[in-house]
Structure to design on (146 residues):
C-alpha cells in the first residue's frame, strides 16, 4: 500500500482582495492544490485565515471532533463547522472570502498568503509585516539536520 503524498505549501505571496471579496489564488499555491478543493478556517483569536486541502482538513477534524468515545463533542463540531468553508477555485483561479472571515482576521485590501508546510495562511499585509518584525526579534539560530 502506497502512503499518500504529504502536501507541502511554502513561500510568501503578496496580492489583494477585490471589491467583491474575491482573491486570486497565488500560482504556486494553486499549483500545490493541483485542482483539489480546499478549506479556509479561522481559528479563534488568530489574525489570519488557515487554508488546508479539504481532504487533509476533513481527516484532521475527524480525528479531533468526531471520535466515538462517548464524549459529547457537539460544541467542538459546531466551532469547526461555523469557522470553516470549503472552496473550489473558479475558472479564473479565484475564490470569495466571506465578510465574517475578512473581519475576524482583520484583512484589508492588501494581503499575503504564506505557505507553512501542510497549510497556508492568509494575512493582512500590515499585520503580517508587523508579525515578521516581532518574530525577527525572537529568532534564535537553529541547527537542522539535512
Amino acid at each position: 500500500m502506497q502512503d499518500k503524498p504529504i502536501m507541502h505549501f511554502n513561500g510568501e505571496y503578496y496580492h489583494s482582495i477585490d471589491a467583491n471579496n474575491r482573491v486570486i489564488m497565488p500560482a504556486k499555491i494553486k499549483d500545490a492544490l493541483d485542482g483539489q478543493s480546499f478549506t479556509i478556517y479561522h481559528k479563534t483569536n488568530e489574525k489570519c485565515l488557515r487554508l488546508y486541502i479539504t481532504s487533509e482538513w476533513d481527516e484532521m477534524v475527524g480525528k479531533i471532533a468526531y471520535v466515538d468515545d462517548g464524549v459529547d463533542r457537539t460544541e467542538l463540531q459546531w466551532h469547526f463547522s461555523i469557522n470553516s468553508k470549503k472552496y473550489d477555485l473558479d475558472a479564473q483561479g479565484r475564490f470569495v472570502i466571506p465578510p465574517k472571515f475578512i473581519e475576524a482576521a482583520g484583512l484589508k485590501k492588501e494581503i499575503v498568503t504564506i505557505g507553512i508546510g501542510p497549510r497556508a495562511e492568509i494575512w493582512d499585509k500590515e499585520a503580517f509585516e508587523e508579525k515578521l518584525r516581532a518574530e525577527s526579534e525572537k529568532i534564535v539560530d537553529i541547527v537542522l539536520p539535512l
